[in-house]
Write a structure and sequence with these properties.
The protein is of the alpha/beta class. It folds into three domains: 107 residues, NadA-like (Rossmann fold, 3-Layer(aba) Sandwich); 84 residues, Rossmann fold, CATH 3.40.50.10800; 86 residues, Rossmann fold, CATH 3.40.50. 45% of the residues lie in helices and 16% in strands. The protein has 15 helices and twelve strands. It has a four-stranded parallel beta sheet with strand order 2-1-3-4, sandwiched between helices. Strands 6-5-7-8 form a four-stranded parallel beta sheet. α4 links the parallel β3 and β4. α3 runs parallel beside α4. It is globular and about 55 Å long. The structure holds 1,3-dihydroxyacetonephosphate (13P). The site of 1,3-dihydroxyacetonephosphate has 14 residues, from α3.
């Protein structure tokens, strides 16, 4: 007799094939959601998988902007976000109107927008980036002046690492789950785990990023953990990533850099909500065509430049 958890997963599987659906989950999702997903990845990997997917229905287990990206890239797919309240507080720090105002101050600058942003902001941008490709994409742009929005920590990381000393103007948004960690937290974690190598996400503050041994997107951390001979790692990103790290590397040890690295909206989707979404094909995320088309251009440019 299947237990309660496997009964839910069985129901998800059955509905998924009936509705010709695929489930995509971000690396920060709870374990039971990652286990139910067809693909688990970082923001860039998920946008590429969404763009290439042949499924008629995408169930996005992540936060709102991620589902919006899937809807921007292919308006013919039904894109479901099982919990509409799952927003990204970083994305909410900027609006298209505010960006238009800021652009007036830097008319020569290329507008480079982190994927953690609303569709209408992407529509005002020259190119989108994720944490796995931001430095590379800024390096490939012709412009010497960049307006980087909305994450100030990633923007500052790009400014410090761009190869040709571009002038980078930043926005004052940040991801609280990363920004909350300080240099003092790094010292305490290193003292508690002296043999561990520190991997930090570039959404962390500069003092944390500079104290890290390596800086990666969540996908980059997974790749590093798989390939390294290091046995112990301190993980400087949202703690949901630890489930997959430990599952894929059972003989290595992973510690969260800080218990403060927790994103509540990334934990709002449950198997029950996925089932309800698949049954009703609601709640659906769609983007008006006048916003979708320019936003698609900025995202497609990212997909092309990331591969260059
Ligand atoms: P990545 O998974 O691309 O590293 O991004 C983390 C994040 O901020 C998701 O909101």
């Amino acid at each position: 007799m299947p237990n309660f958890k496997s009964k839910l997963l069985y129901e998800v599987e059955a509905l998924k094939s009936r509705k010709k659906a695929v489930i995509l989950a971000h690396n920060y999702q709870p374990p039971e959601i990652q286990d139910a997903a067809d693909y688990v990845g970082d923001s860039f990997e998920l946008s590429r998988v969404a763009a290439e997917s042949k499924a008629e229905v995408i169930v996005f287990c992540g936060v709102f902007f991620m589902a919006e990206v899937a809807a921007i890239l292919d308006p013919h797919k039904v894109v479901l976000l099982p919990e509409m309240a799952a927003g990204c507080p970083l994305a909410d720090t900027i609006t298209a109107a505010a960006l238009r105002e800021r652009k007036k101050q830097h008319p020569e600058a290329a507008v480079v927008t982190y994927i953690n942003s609303p569709a209408a902001v992407k529509a005002e941008s020259d190119v989108c980036v994720t944490s796995s490709n931001a430095v590379h994409i800024v390096d490939t742009l012709e412009a010497d002046e960049i307006l980087f929005v909305p994450d100030m920590n990633l923007g500052s990381y790009v400014a410090r690492h761009t190869a040709n000393n571009k002038k980078v103007h930043t926005w004052n948004g940040c991801c609280e789950s990363h920004h909350i960690v300080t240099g003092a937290d790094v010292q305490a974690a290193r003292a508690a785990h002296p043999k561990a190598v520190l991997l930090a996400h570039p959404e962390c503050q500069p003092e944390v990023v500079e104290a890290a041994d390596h800086v990666f997107s969540t996908g980059g951390m997974l790749k590093y953990a798989d390939q390294t001979d290091d046995r112990e790692m301190l993980i400087g990103t949202e703690q949901g990533l630890l489930y997959r790290l430990q599952k894929e590397n059972p003989h290595k040890r992973f510690y969260s850099l800080s218990p403060k690295m927790y994103c509540p909206t990334m934990k709002m989707i449950t198997p029950e909500k996925i089932i309800s979404s698949l049954k009703t094909l609601r709640p659906r995320v769609a983007v008006p065509e006048d916003i979708r088309e320019p936003a698609r251009k900025a995202l497609e440019r990212m997909l092309q430049l990331a591969a260059s």
